[in-house]
Amino acid sequence: MKNQIKFPVKALAAIGVLLTMVGIMAFALHNDNAPVSKQLVVKKDSIASVKAFKQVYTVLMSARCMNCHPSGDIPLQGEDSHLHTMLPKRGVDGKGVYAMKCSNCHQPANTPGLHTPPGNPNWHLPPADMKMIFQGRTPHQLAKQLVDPNQNGHKDLKKLIEHADDGLVLAGWNPGEGRKLPPISHAAFKKAWITWLTTGAYAPNGK
Amino acid sequence: MTSITVNGKQHQIDADPNMPLLWVIRDIIGLTGTKYGCGVAQCGACVVHLNGDAVRSCVTKLSRAAGQQVITIEGLSANNDHPAQQAWNEENVPQCGYCHSGQIMSAAVLLRENPNPSDADIDSAMAGNICRCGTYLRIRKAIHLAAELQRKEGASK
């Protein structure tokens, strides 16, 4: 009789633990702040993917992102993305050349005041052997490029998702005085970025 | 108190860590060879070497230089005989002279990293140093001469 009572209690406890775990996992999979490993499930949906990429594209083509992803070897500057004054060069590692290294002017943090250099400890362009150009790329071209490890800095899906929180990416939303922010918040960008990637990273139609 | 080493000499600086390094060098330590031009890293008059890099001291905070090695125009050579200084003298480069400590400090980094710079290399390295008198052609000529002097010095050692 004693054993007959004990058995259902154990079973119920086990079911309870299982349900709790399933609940936690379900929550984690729908939480953008969950660890990247929890966000790696790809559920293909070309319509949702292309829709999300349209938002991503508006951010990547904004001055805050595109100015350091130029088509040439000179960074861009300003809301109109003109060539950076003084014409600093990319250099092999993306950190400039000789007396014109990025960090000679760009400090670890934004310099106060208008028309002063914005700052970040890791200020640089993509390196010469992988320029990761945004300027002039169509949505189709940029989407294809972003998921190609030979053009995206050898990033796989996990690293691409992590890149949304990269220090220089975040710096786009802390651009220093007098500079416009990207068109949507970082949270909205990250959500669109992860949605695009985890629904198959489809490229919009076109060339 | 912030400790910095300027031209090989250690200094304890009692100042706001956000103070521009240029103010520390000129107003506290008293080395006035480095000039104030624009104050926003646009002209290059204030270039000094921070651990060998040609930083603009008007926007570089004292805190960035803490515990680091700073070289100013006064410390570039023992007897004002760095190849760039000799070449500047030989070619009579300066007109008003205000920008030239910055120019020479930038040129010294170029010459260290590229002992035989082309015109294009010189333009790339010096594009951030503005000269209101327009001495650019003499600057370029002097850098070529400095490279030659540097090579001769190297060969004679």
CATH fold node name of the largest domain in chain B: Ubiquitin-like (UB roll)
Number of strands of chain B: 5
- Output the helix-strand order of chain A: HHHEEEEHHHHH
Structural class of chain B: alpha+beta
**Count of strand segments of chain A:** 4
Portion of residues in beta strands of chain A equals under 5%
Oligomeric composition of the shown chains:
heterodimer
CATH superfamily of the largest domain in chain B: Beta-grasp domain
Helix content of chain A: 40-55%
Task: Quickly count the helices of chain B.
Answer: 6
Strand content of chain B: 5-15%
What's the short version?
The complex is a heterodimer of chains A (207) and B (157). Chain A has 207 residues and is mainly α. Helix content of chain A is 41%, strand content 4%.
Description:
The complex is a heterodimer of chains A (207) and B (157). With 207 residues, chain A is mainly alpha-helical. Chain A has two domains: 1-30; 38-84 and 125-198, no CATH class. Chain A is built from eight helices and four strands. Chain A has helices at 2-29, 46-60, 63-66, 102-105, 139-146, 157-163, 167-171, 186-198; strands at residues 76-77, 82-83, 96-97, 100-101. Chain A has a two-stranded antiparallel ribbon. In chain A, strand 3 and strand 4 (100-101) form a beta hairpin. Chain A is globular and about 50 Å long. Chain B is an alpha+beta fold and 157 residues long. Chain B folds into two domains: 2-75, Beta-grasp domain (Ubiquitin-like (UB roll), Roll), CATH 3.10.20.30; 83-156, DNA polymerase, domain 1. In chain B, helix 3 (83-90) crosses helix 4, helix 3 crosses helix 6 (136-156) and helix 4 (100-113) packs across helix 5 (119-126). Chain B is globular and about 45 Å long. The N and C termini of chain B lie far apart (42 Å). Chain A binds chain B through residues 85-89, 97-101, 103-105, 107-108, 111, 113, 115-117, and chain B through 40-42, 47, 53-56, 59-61, 64, 105-107, 109-110, 113-114, 121, 124-129. Chain B: Pfam families: Fer2, Fer2_2.
